């Protein structure tokens, strides 16, 4: 499992704890480049991309990149409050 989060926060921590509890191998990347390098070396089955914050992290481009082995990608976005 690969987490692409620009910064550590409660969401990232919760996903890290869940991966640990499920005995999943986990990598956490803070930049798109680091995530791509990690993916190419480990071929993760699940990638979770945090798109909640505007930063140097280009999450949208990463989520659309042609990852030939990508099985499932989740983009975390803030919910719209009514």
The geometry reads as: globular
Which stretches are low in confidence, meaning pLDDT under 50 for 5 or more residues running? Answer: none
Give a short account of the largest sheet.
4 strands, parallel
Q: Using the CA coordinates, give the radius of gyration.
A: 12 Å
Q: Into how many domains do the coordinates divide?
A: 1
CATH class value: Alpha Beta
Question: Taking strands numbered 1, 2, ... along the chain, how are they ordered across the largest sheet?
Answer: 2-1-3-4
Q: Which structural class should the secondary elements be placed in?
A: alpha/beta
CATH architecture: 3-Layer(aba) Sandwich
Number of helical segments? 3
């Amino acid at each position: 499992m690969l987490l692409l989060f620009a910064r550590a926060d409660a969401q990232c921590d919760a996903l890290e704890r869940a991966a640990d509890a499920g005995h999943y191998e986990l990598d956490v990347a803070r930049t798109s480049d680091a995530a791509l390098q990690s993916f190419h070396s480990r071929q993760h089955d699940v990638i979770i991309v945090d798109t909640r914050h505007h930063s140097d992290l280009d999450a949208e481009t990463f989520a659309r990149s042609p990852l030939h082995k990508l099985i499932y990608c989740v983009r975390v976005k803030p919910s719209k409050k009514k």
